[in-house]
Design goal:
The structure holds three protein chains of three kinds. Chain A has two domains: 2-239, Rossmann fold (3-Layer(aba) Sandwich); 244-305. Helices cover 34% and strands 31% of the residues of chain A. Chain A has helices at 55-63, 84-90, 107-117, 122-135, 151-163, 181-198, 209-215, 233-239, 285-293, 308-321, and strands at 2-18, 24-40, 44-48, 70-75, 91-94, 169-173, 201-205, 218-223, 226-232, 244-250, 262-268, 273-278, 298-304. In chain A, strand 6 (169-173), helix 6 (181-198) and strand 7 (201-205) form a beta-alpha-beta unit. In chain A, helix 3 (107-117) crosses helix 4. By secondary structure, chain B is an all-alpha fold. Chain B has one domain (2-252). By secondary structure, chain C is mainly alpha-helical. Chain C is built from twelve helices and no strands. Chain C has helices spanning 3-16, 19-46, 56-69, 80-87, 90-94, 100-130, 139-165, 174-187, 199-206, 210-213, 215-221, 230-262. In chain C, helix 2 (19-46) packs antiparallel against helix 3. The chains are: A alpha/beta, B mainly alpha, C mainly alpha.
């Protein structure tokens, strides 16, 4: 069953600029320029692209808070703008950088209020909240005012708030931006479990390849308002295999090492920090770590993933020249 | 200068703000006008006489507000971390804060005061002499000085009152309100507080008594008006003591 | 608990977290109350003991209730919806299965309730003691007053809400906000009771919704308007409530439509 369907979806904005003392120019810019796609219930889809590629505009049209200039969109079988309130009962949305939590009140109260707004019975709401609290490990700060929470804690709260009414579709706009590694991982683990258990459809935008790898079976890449890739992550990797870099911090100074399948691209502070660049088809991150730790005690590891911007640029370049 | 110019750039907004400031002041005058439309005498003064009190207050408060008005938004300076950046510079804090935003729009209130004064003076029957001109100039100079001190005092209190900024409105804007009024209308505790602790009546009502050669009510004799310089010194002593203590508390507590 | 009660309760608790601000409000409104009491008493005395139907006692009651209600029925400053439009947070509000106006109206009731208890009641109690004015004894006065206050708050909310809705059409809100503030502080009868206005100004006020927010409810609760005179006052309040309700519904409908078409 299809949960999101768009057909030649297009959204234009009029940009006014001052051209002279009295004249103004009007320019029509298409933020979303003819996107057609279909997402089935239960899928998990990464929606990626550079800033300003049209991701947020698409999400606004899917959720009914923006009217398309032309084309067709159906979410959960409903026309989003006309049936915005009915749709809101079936979907959960976390808009990047915007909160739906009550800033001055304990986290717990936001859940109660949202439960009431979605008109789920008090009993059902309480059960669901208890479950989310356990799975997202919110218990220790449930009674803390939201404004005192760390970014990671708050984002887990936001996700719980978006899921409180058991939506069929969860839309997350940049859910892991600014989070530390542990918080990111905790959130990803939860989303994997949530999907496995309830079959919730997931649509997320992100700049983090880790999110895509852990969470998304399918990736849509948008560039300048157009869909430039629609397929599995592996396909994307094969189409655009970009180098990754492993930065290794040793406990003791080291001579420069060679690791098979990699190229050493950094040697700093007498070898305390060494960087190895490798291509995903040549070796894996795990192998690089194993090799690197044979030379001495490793204090810290950082894996530098190719930025989504680079992937998109490469992809777009390939498309443009084809 | 760059800061002043940047205010002019947002022209529509600036014009609206000027008009808004002017009309806000005008409404305050309408209050006095309406009360004097009901009764011929209000606190011992006629309409032109009471207008003079209002005019002196408007000019002094407007000037002080223009330069020192930002002092009572100290909590937002603190919240935005701007105070730290001021503290790290080898300059005194108060000059840095007041020059960070000089609010030109507040000249509208000064303008209102000047217009009111110009209209009211011919009807007030003042026996002009060089001394009387001196009284008016002195009232404006010391008035601006005293209101400026109130803003600094309010700023100093904010170090303790981050979420209770409204406390200081009681004496800054309460002081402004009191200074627009004829002294006899004030209930005794208010009259005492806003003369001897926060000297708001001293540069508005009292100089008008001197100009009109009227005696003044209990606790507010005309002669007190000549003490304006002393009251100005007192206001600044009070303001700076509180301000310094506030800064010490802030830096001592480590932010 | 229904969503409406939840919203009232939540906003009530939210307001209650700002304890210092509430205390500051009591203090500052109290000081201003003492100043204003002096002003009005002097005006009454200057007019020979009675002005615009006010004597010393009713003048004090007028000031007392005015200062006490200032938190609950604010004369100025509420731009929460407008600022959410400016920051784009309005998207979060629109993506909820609840009407925008219903959402903010019930929150406003919670806000008013806390402001009345935390700010208004202490001022009423302290003021009655300090200024020696006993509370009304006639239950009918309390009844008419309570009704008038609830209607006054509703009219006041709808006025503020309508002002905020203008932000759906323009980002230049400052002019409208200043205009509203100037008009409201005068025509509600907050600064000076409209009964003291010169004829022309009084006529303007009486043909506006503003006295319904403030002057009329204060007249009812302070026992200035009693008996059969209560009914036309309540009627006027209800009429304005209806007019503003229809107006804000139309504005909400077209404003939301404009927002989703223009894209905020």
């Amino acid at each position: 069953m299809t949960i999101i369907e768009t057909e030649d979806l297009r959204r234009e904005f009029i940009v006014r600029a001052k051209a002279g003392r009295f004249t103004r120019t009007k320019k029509v810019v298409a933020a979303v320029d003819g996107i057609s796609c279909s997402i089935a219930e239960g899928e998990s889809v990464g929606y990626i692209g550079a800033n300003g590629a049209g991701k947020s505009t698409t999400i606004k049209m899917l959720t009914g808070i923006l009217v398309p200039t032309s084309g067709r969109v159906t979410t959960c079988g409903l026309p989003p703008v006309e049936r915005r309130k009915d749709l809101a009962r079936q979907i959960g949305v976390v808009f990047g950088q915007r909160t739906q939590l009550w800033w001055d009140l304990p986290l717990r109260e936001s859940f109660t209020i949202l439960g009431a707004i979605h008109r789920i019975g008090a009993r059902a709401a309480a059960d669901r909240i208890d479950q989310l609290v356990a799975e997202l490990e919110l218990a220790e700060f449930l009674d803390t005012p939201v404004r005192q929470l760390s970014l990671g804690q708050r984002m887990r709260g936001e996700v719980a708030a978006a899921l409180a009414h058991r939506p069929r579709l969860l839309i997350l706009d940049e859910p892991t931006i600014g989070l530390d590694m542990i918080s990111k991982e905790r959130l990803r683990q939860f989303l994997v479990a949530e999907r496995a258990e309830r079959g919730t459809t997931l649509l997320l935008t992100t700049h983090d390849m880790g999110d895509i790898e852990r969470l998304c079976e399918r990736v849509l890449v948008v560039d300048q308002g157009q869909l430039v890739h629609d397929g599995a992550l592996g396909e994307l990797r094969r189409t655009v295999a970009l180098d990754r870099t492993m930065v290794v911090d040793y406990a003791e100074p080291q001579p420069p090492h060679e690791i098979p399948g990699t190229e050493r691209v950094g040697y700093e502070i007498d070898g305390l920090r060494q960087s190895y660049r490798f291509h995903p088809t040549q070796t894996t991150a795990a192998k690089v770590v194993t090799e690197a730790s044979r030379f001495g005690e490793v204090r810290d590891l950082t894996l530098q993933e190719p930025a989504i911007e680079d992937i998109v640029r490469t992809l777009y370049g390939a498309r443009g020249s084809a | 200068m760059a800061r002043l110019r940047s205010q002019m750039v947002y022209r529509t907004s600036f014009v609206l703000n000027v008009i808004g400031t002017f009309f806000t002041g005008l409404i305050e005058f309408v209050e006095i006008y309406v009360l004097l439309a009901t009764a011929p005498i209000f606190g011992g003064l006629t309409l032109p006489e009471a207008s003079l009190v209002f005019a002196l207050s408007s000019v002094s408060f407007g000037l002080a507000d223009m330069v020192f008005g930002q002092m009572d938004s100290l909590p937002s300076f603190i919240k935005q971390g701007q105070l730290e950046s001021f503290l790290t510079k080898p300059l005194r804090l108060v000059p840095q804060m007041i020059t960070s935003t000089v609010q030109l729009r507040r000249l509208a209130r000064v303008l209102l005061g000047v217009i009111t004064f110009a209209i009211a003076v011919p009807h007030a029957g003042i026996a002009w002499s060089p001394v009387m001109v001196g009284v008016v100039v002195g009232a404006l100079v010391f008035g601006t000085t005293i209101f400026s001190a109130l803003f600094v005092l309010a700023g100093g209190c904010q170090f303790w009152l981050i979420n209770g900024t409204e406390f200081t409105n009681a004496f800054v804007y309460g002081g402004k309100y009191v200074s627009q009024l004829p002294g006899p209308v004030l209930l005794t505790p208010i009259r005492v507080f806003f003369t001897f602790v926060v000297p708001a009546t001293v540069t508005t009502y009292l100089p008008v008594l001197i100009l009109l050669d009227k005696p003044g009510p209990a606790l507010l004799p005309q002669v007190l008006g000549w003490g304006a310089p002393l009251f100005a010194v007192w206001a600044w002593v009070l303001a700076l003591v509180v301000w310094r203590a506030g800064v010490r508390k802030y830096t001592g507590a480590g932010g | 608990m229904s969503v409406h009660l939840q919203l009232i309760a939540a906003e009530f608790r939210r307001q209650s977290t700002y304890r210092l601000a509430l205390a500051a409000g009591v203090f500052t409104n109290g000081i201003f109350g003492l100043i204003r009491a002096g002003v009005l008493l002097a005006a009454v005395a200057g007019a020979g003991g009675e002005a615009g139907g006010y004597d010393a006692r009713t003048a004090i009651l007028y000031v007392l209730w005015g200062q006490a209600l200032l938190g609950a029925i604010p004369m100025w400053g509420w731009n929460e919806v407008a600022s959410r439009v400016r920051t784009g947070e309005i998207a979060v509000d629109l993506a909820r299965p609840i009407d925008l106006q219903v959402y903010w109206w019930f929150r406003d009731l919670g806000r008013a309730a806390m402001q009345f208890l935390g700010r208004g009641l202490p001022i009423l109690i302290l003021g009655s003691v300090v200024l020696r004015v006993p509370p009304p004894t006639d239950p009918l006065v309390w009844l008419a007053g309570a009704l008038g206050l609830i209607l006054g708050l509703a009219v006041n909310f709808l006025g503020r809400y309508a002002l905020n809705l203008i932000s759906f059409w323009t980002i230049e809100m400052q002019g409208f906000q200043i205009l509203y503030m100037v008009v409201v502080s005068l025509l509600t009868g907050f600064t000076v009771p409209i009964h003291l206005f010169p004829g022309w100004l009084k006529t303007i006020a009486e043909w506006s919704p503003f006295p319904s927010m403030y002057q009329y409810p204060v007249d009812l609760i302070s026992g200035r308007t009693t008996g059969v005179d209560v009914l036309p006052i309540i009627g006027i309040q209800l009429a304005w409530l209806l007019v503003l309700l229809v107006g804000t519904r139309v504005m909400t409908h077209f404003g939301t439509r404009r927002l989703v078409i223009q894209g905020g």
